[in-house]
Amino acid sequence: MSDSLARLLDLLDLEQIEVNIFRGRSPDETVQRVFGGQVAGQALVAAGRTVPADRLVHSLHAYFIRPGDPAVPIVYTVDRVRDGRSFATRRVTAIQHGEVIFTLSASFHHPEPGLEHAEPMPKVPPPEQVRSSAERIAEATGAELPPHYRDSPIEVRSVGPLSVEAARDPALRATSSQVWLRINGELPDDPLLHVCLVTYVSDLTLLDTVLVRHGVSWYDGQTAGASLDHAMWFHRPFRADQWLLYAQDSPVAYGARGLARGEMFTADGDLVVSVVQEGLIRTTPKPSLG
Q: Is 222 a catalytic residue?
């Protein structure tokens, strides 16, 4: 196991400080705000640790209320809303500096048989034929990648254009995006861990789907954004350390908000996760040359 993967797993291994109360930390105190996927993943860990192992998470709904401060711990309090015969519901509140920064509701379900159908996976090249997104970002920006990109335990390979590429070439603008991703290293056989890791990575590329449609980029110095809310549904078991295709699109953007949707498929074509997120995206017009 690489050092970067060990650090990520340690990040999700919350400290329990009281019944229903957990504490998490951030890996990098130099950034301005805590990564949204980190808060969502940690909150789901807190919720899952209060639920019997035979209840698997099937959905979560979350709101990002305030930016997280990476310099101080995050306290997660869990409200055991309901424990039924088939379902369990948990509500998690993340607190920093005495204020709520994030809330999450999660539902857990004991597996049972039922009707089955699913949309097919899009036809895309296999991950072995797709270049690393980090390499392409470095080429497009002409700058050295930050350490967290170079030494990331998460492998991301975008099939189509990246937003930073579409910002330089209008012909590359697209209405959808397909991304292969996986945790780069072998993980333990813990279903909750795999779900929490996919929750973490689900926030990496969704809002880029809004940007690539308009030819703007986080790297252009004029675009800034943040996650507002996030919803996920987990349909089937999967492994986060095996390739997943994240097929994403953006049906609407208006009023400085953009909506993005995603579906994750295993390499065998099984639809395993659905995601919807709305994000705040603010752009500053380029100064006129006249």
A: no
CA angle, residues 34, 58, 111, in degrees to nearest 5: 145
The answer to whether 244 touches 198, Cβ cutoff 8 Å, is yes
**Residue 2 backbone dihedrals phi, psi, to 5 degrees:** -70, 160
Q: Which of 42, 178, 203, 248 is catalytic?
A: 203
227 included as an active-site residue: yes
Question: What integer pLDDT is reported at residue 238 of this predicted model?
Answer: 97
Q: Evaluate if residue 124 carries a pLDDT over 60.
A: yes
Cβ neighbour number for residue 234 with a 10 Å cutoff: 24
Residue of 26, 96, 202, 277 marked catalytic: 277
Express each pLDDT in 4-43 by its tens digit: 899 999 999 999 999 999 999 988 756 678 999 999 999 9
The residue annotated as part of the active site, out of 26, 38, 177, 227, is 227
Asked whether the whole model's pTM tops 0.85, one would answer yes
169 is catalytic: no
Write 32-36 long-range contacts (CB < 8 A, 24+): 32/67, 32/70, 33/67, 33/68, 33/69, 33/70, 33/226, 34/67, 34/68, 34/69, 34/70, 34/74, 35/203, 36/64, 36/203, 36/226, 36/227, 36/230
| Burial class of residue 88 (count of CB atoms within 10 Å of its CB; 0-12, 13-18, 19+) | buried
Q: Which amino acid is at 118?
A: A
- 131 has a pLDDT exceeding 80: yes
